[in-house]
Every structure is written in C-alpha cells, then in structure tokens.
User: Which sequence fits this backbone?
C-alpha cells in the first residue's frame, strides 16, 4: 500500500487563509497559537500518522479483531500505536488544562484527526469516541464525575464509548429498552447494546461507556431516556480501580470495512445490573447525548476527508507508475503512464478537488466552533453556534458521501487491479462506507438540516450564510484570473440556486413537510457543494494574489487554481440541478407507494 504523507501544505493553507487562524488566535486563551506552533503540530502529527498509524492500516484490515473469552484482541501493533499516540499528548489537544488537556483550538484538533483518519481510520475511531465522551462530560457532567473520569479520559489512559443502538432500536431511540433502577447513589443498568465501536479492546485498562437507558419512572418514548456513565472497571474513591462491572462484550461484528476496529455487542446486567452513574437529570438523556453525537458527527465528516485524501494519494501514485496505451493525440506508439490520459486526469483532479473542498468546510466549521466557545461577545457566540449547528450535518453527510465517491473513483483509476484486494484500493471504499451510516445515517442528517436547522427558524442562519457568500462575490469581481472568474460565475449561480431552494423549503414546510423531506438529501448536498465552492473561490483569490505578489509557493498556488477551476466547471455547476431536485423531486416520490411497481 502506498505510503501516506499528510498534505501539510494544503492543511496549513486552509487553517491560515480559509478558517482564519489570526481570528482564532485572537480569542481568549489562544494567544500562543501562532503559525509556527501550528506548523510544528502538523509536522509531528504527520510523522506519527505516516510512520506509526499508516503502516498498520493494511495489516489491521487483513488481521481484524478477535474475541477470546470475553477479551477483544485488536490487530498486531494497534495497542503499541495507541500508546505512542497518548504518550505524545495527542488525545488532549483541545481540552481543559485543569484536567491535563492542552487547551488548544478545535481547529487544530480537526486537522490532526484528519491525519489519524487518513492514516488508519480503524485505529482513529477509538480516540474519536473518547473525544466525544470528554466533550459530553465537560458540558453535562457533575463535579464528581469530572473529577473521577476527565483526567484519565483526556490523557487517553482510559477510553470512552457511545451506547445507544439496540437490536430493536436502530435510529429510533424511542424504542430503547435498556433499563435503569436506582440503587443508592447509583443505578443498576440492564440491557443489550449493539454496534458499539471499541466497546471492548486491549488498548487500556478501563473503558468508560456512555449508556442511554430508560429511567425508572420516566415517560414512554424518547423523553423517558436518561444517560449513565458505566465504567468497565469500577473506580474507587481514591481513583484506583476496583472490581469488574457487570458488563461484557458477547460478540464482535464481521463487517464490510474498518476491520481493525472492534464493533461490539455489549450486554449489561447479566448478574444483577451494571453500576451506572447518572449524568445530569433523569429523562434528559437525549439532550445530553446530542452533545456527544454532534461532536462525533463533525469528527466523522473528517473520516470522509481523511480516507478521501488517502485514496487520492494511492490512486495518484498508481497512475504515475502504471504504463498503458499510447497518449491520445501523440504520434508515438509507445505506451505512457495512465496519468497522461485525459479521463484519468479528470478522475484524479475530481478526487483532489472534492477532498480539498470538504477539508475546507470541516476546518471552517471547527473555527466557528472555537469562536462559539470563546468569543467575548455573547451575540457573536450565538451567531457562530447557529452556524456550527447548521453546518454539522453538512460536514458529516456531505464529507462522508464525498469520501465514498472519491474512494470509489480510486478503484476505477486502478482498473481491474482496483477490484483486487492486494492493490489496496478496495479498503478505502470499504472503510469509508460506514461513515454515511453511523451517528445518524446521512438521510437523518439531511432531515435534521432541512427541518430543524432551516425550516423551523425560517432559514435565518442559512440566509445569513448565503448573504456572506454574496458579499464575497464583490471581492471576486476584482480578479482578472480566468480560473477565479470561472468560479465566480459558478458560485453566483450556485448561491442563487441555494437561495431558491431555501426559500422553497421555508415556504413549503408548514403545508407539506413530506415534500420537503423528499428533498432533504439533495438540499444537504446543495448546501455542501455551494459552501465548498465559496471556500474554494476564496482559496482561488488568495493564491492568485500570492502569485501576483510573489509571496506564495508557486507550485502549490498553480495546483490550487487547477482544483478551483475543476470545482467551478464540474462540481459547483451541479447546484441548479440540485435545487430543481429539491423543489420538484416530490412529484414522483409522493406517488411511489401507489405506483403498483
């Protein structure tokens, strides 16, 4: 499998120019976050990714995980790689220094997690969920829970999981049957959870499960769920480990991909009930769990970015080496490397441009999150949080769908070899495929976006983002570069299409919410494509100015303009047709059940 190298030049460019590092560094507590610090973090993360995580990606996929007498053994080298990860302090990048974190921006955490996902997504899934568990406890946990668990989770000495899904309750959490019964200062938890990523493993001595269970006296349905911290090993008052809790992994799933990540069926309370500690108040479990889920959803979007980048690097290296057929229009009969063929070039640049756009949007959302958490002005915090809420389902769904598409294109570039596991190309598609399903399928993300984030607030935040894009169009008017001019025109048409679809959603939702739901997925893609186009247009203008001033890396700037032009001509131009699908697509969908087919 091709060696992975973190795309540090583009990551640095996005952080500085598109996400706005200067603005992030101006936030309280981030004064020491300089470009030099960012460069150092990216360089070291890149080394760990390429030298430690990436070499285990293929072998981990082949070996998989094994359950032996209730103990899960992960692939050879995974526990040692995880130890090097936590020894380097990577688990605590954005978290509170009071508990051992580094207190750095989520923007930097986002960049490092792209590297972990690109290098070895199966391995990266464990700290990804730990990160989400830490975020949950930091927002909703009591002082006692924080004192008991935060430092060990932030260091990575312990890991965290998310336990929601049950055999009869997939995304419909109202059907959750796992029960809780009060027992003094804690609860006894009984039930079964499925699809629990890293629910059992051999990385750490303790695993801290975040478990949704039905409250003893709660109402039926989703409002009767509470959230509990259920440790694998009980923790004594002095912080040392005590007895094994009443929980176990009863099986691990045999999956399409992410084979190095154990996906567990967890049983709670086989011998009387697992000890669990209530987070917050009873019957508010869903509210609390959404903090963890939204953190995970942003992180899963990065899986699409990371796997897409890795698939692109793999396909690009192959296309440079694979010699086949004479060049079109060339009189020489000699075969050439396939990257000389226009269609292969088209596929390669499609992989690169789409990955760059999803990277830009994920980093931009992370910068908004930092501002929402730290800006001194309350109105600004609320504005940025609303934007984070709007973009979270887009980053999750659009980025993961794009990662699947990019990985699929990588197989096509390999031709027949791409269908063979030994080529390495199939693993990227198999690994990427899950990201569109878990933490809420992408259809659920689209419904969340179109109903909760757009229709219910009359499109206020979406229209504010549209207005920001229109303001930038005035800046593009000063450009004389033909590539920037091309994306300006495509962006203007895309923004018009997004506005048309948004107005239709707001106007139609009250009378025909099913019609709106039928267009939810294309609306999410439309917002992703246009927002990505806006950021790519900003990138194009920046590198044009760098070329004119002679301050930029010429090769990088010219390469970025190629990506910008492709995105303008072949991706952003999809916006008007997506808008038409949103506003007119219900006609057939609504009649399908009565079609007689």
Assistant:
């Amino acid at each position: 499998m091709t060696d992975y190298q973190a795309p540090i030049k583009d990551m640095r460019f996005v952080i500085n120019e598109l996400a706005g590092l200067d603005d992030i560094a101006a936030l309280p507590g981030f004064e020491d976050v300089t470009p030099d610090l960012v460069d150092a973090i990216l360089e070291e993360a890149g080394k760990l990714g390429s030298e430690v995580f990436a070499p285990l990606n293929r072998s981990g996929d082949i070996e998989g995980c094994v359950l032996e007498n209730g103990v899960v053994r992960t692939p050879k080298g995974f526990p040692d790689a995880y130890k090097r990860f936590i020894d380097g302090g990577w688990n605590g990048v954005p978290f509170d220094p009071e508990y051992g974190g580094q207190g750095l921006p989520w923007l930097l955490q986002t960049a490092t997690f792209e590297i972990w996902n690109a290098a070895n997504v199966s391995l990266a899934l464990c700290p990804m969920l730990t990160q989400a568990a830490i975020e949950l406890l930091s927002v909703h946990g009591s002082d006692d829970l924080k004192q008991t668990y935060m430092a060990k989770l932030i260091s990575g000495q312990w890991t965290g999981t998310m336990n929601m899904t049950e055999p009869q309750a997939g995304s419909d959490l109202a059907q959750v049957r796992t029960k809780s019964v009060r027992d003094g200062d804690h609860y006894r938890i009984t039930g079964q959870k499925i699809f629990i990523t890293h629910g059992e493993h051999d990385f750490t001595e303790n695993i801290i499960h975040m478990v949704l269970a039905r409250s003893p006296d709660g109402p039926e349905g989703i409002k009767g769920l509470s959230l509990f911290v259920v440790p694998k090993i009980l923790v004594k008052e002095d912080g040392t480990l005590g007895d094994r809790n009443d929980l176990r992994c009863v099986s691990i799933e045999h999956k399409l991909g992410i084979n190095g990540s154990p996906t567990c069926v967890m049983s709670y309370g086989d011998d009387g009930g697992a000890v669990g500690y209530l987070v917050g108040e009873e019957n508010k479990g869903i509210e609390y769990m959404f903090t963890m889920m939204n953190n995970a959803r942003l992180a899963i979007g990065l899986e699409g970015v990371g796997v897409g980048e890795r698939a692109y690097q793999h396909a690009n290296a192959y296309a440079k080496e694979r010699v086949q057929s004479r060049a079109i229009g060339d009189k020489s009969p000699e075969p050439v490397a396939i990257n000389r063929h226009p269609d292969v070039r088209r596929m390669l640049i499609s992989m690169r441009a789409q990955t760059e756009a999803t990277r830009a949007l994920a980093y931009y959302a992370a910068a908004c999150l930092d501002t929402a958490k730290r800006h001194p002005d309350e109105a600004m915090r609320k504005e940025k949080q609303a934007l984070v809420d709007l973009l979270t389902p887009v980053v999750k769904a659009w980025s993961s769908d794009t990662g699947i598409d990019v990985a699929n294109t990588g197989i096509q570039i390999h031709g027949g070899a791409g269908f063979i596991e030994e080529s390495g190309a199939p693993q990227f598609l198999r690994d990427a495929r899950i990201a569109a399903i878990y933490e809420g399928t992408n259809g659920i993300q689209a419904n969340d976006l179109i109903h909760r984030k757009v229709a219910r607030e009359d499109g206020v935040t979406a229209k504010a983002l549209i207005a920001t894009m229109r303001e930038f169009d005035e800046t593009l008017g000063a450009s004389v570069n033909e590539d920037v001019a091309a994306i300006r025109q495509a962006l203007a048409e895309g923004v018009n299409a997004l506005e048309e679809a948004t107005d239709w959603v707001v106007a139609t939702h009250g009378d025909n919410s099913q019609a709106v739901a039928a267009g939810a997925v294309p609306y999410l893609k439309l917002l992703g494509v246009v927002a990505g186009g806006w950021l790519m247009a900003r990138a194009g203008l920046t590198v044009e100015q760098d070329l004119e001033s002679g301050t930029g890396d010429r090769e990088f700037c010219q390469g970025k303009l190629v990506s910008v032009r492709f995105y303008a001509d072949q991706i952003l131009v999809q916006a008007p047709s997506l808008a038409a699908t949103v506003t007119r697509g219900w006609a057939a969908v609504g009649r399908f059940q009565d079609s007689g087919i």
User: Anything to note?
Assistant: The longest strand covers residues 186-197. The chain has a mean pLDDT of 96. Residues 443-591 form one domain.
